[in-house]
Design a protein that fits this description.
Length: 221
């Protein structure tokens, strides 16, 4: 089945709604310029109330490995997502070297000139998945805008030969089935597409998103 991450959690109610809907992972944004920014302390209190089976992923922008590891330990995260425009692939190597149980996801903007070349810069053994997004240097995801899926098929097929891909950017309950059918990703990631307002989820949209993913999973099984 397609892996589902609901990102941008700011409160326990939303995180539990994602879990109840059937999501596989929730994301916490540790980036002060984001409307979904959350403190380490607040994230830790939410994580303590979530099932062990749920992945708890911290989203970071251009941070060193010591910051990633410190926040992961303090908040109880199971994975970190490197989502900046100046990320150093060696940081992922250091994270898994020092904490092998912490998974690393790295974002790739599909608006950069050579997404496949950027994916090749990372050690496959250090990266759990490549999150392909529509973000750019001035807006690190969460834009609510999709990249051109049809134009990206060949590039994504090439990246799949390196590792898992997770599609993000502009996904909603209405279009996620089409994205999965067209791109055949390992996973999908949504934030703004299931929100009532920035940082506050709409429980019905969350449920509808998960239902849409599972429906296309059944139809293509």
């Amino acid at each position: 089945m397609t892996w589902i991450k609901i990102c941008g959690m700011t409160n326990l109610e939303d995180a539990l709604a994602a879990v109840d809907a059937g999501a596989d992972a929730v994301g916490f944004v540790f980036y002060e310029k984001s409307p979904r920014n959350i403190s380490v302390e607040a994230a830790r209190e939410i994580v303590k109330r979530l099932p062990e089976s749920i992945e708890k992923i911290g989203v970071f922008v251009n941070q060193r490995e010591d910051v990633l590891l410190s926040v992961a330990e303090r908040a109880g995260l199971t994975a970190v997502q490197m989502h900046g425009d100046r990320e150093d692939p060696h940081v992922a190597d250091l994270v898994v070297k020092h904490k092998a149980h912490i998974k690393v996801l790295t974002a790739i903007s599909m608006r950069q000139p050579n997404p496949e070349g950027w994916a090749l810069m990372w050690q496959p053994g250090s990266v759990e998945a490549f999150l392909v997004d529509s973000g750019n240097g001035s807006n690190h995801g969460g834009t609510g805008q999709a990249f051109d899926w049809a134009a990206a098929v060949q590039t994504l097929d090439a990246i799949k030969r390196i590792g898992h891909i997770v599609v993000a950017g502009g996904l909603t309950p209405v279009n996620v089935g089409k994205a999965i059918a067209m791109l055949k990703p390992w996973g999908v990631d949504v934030a703004s597409g299931v929100e009532a307002s920035p940082g506050k989820k709409d429980p019905e949209k969350v449920r509808a998103f998960v239902r849409a993913v599972r429906e296309i999973d059944r139809r293509t099984a």
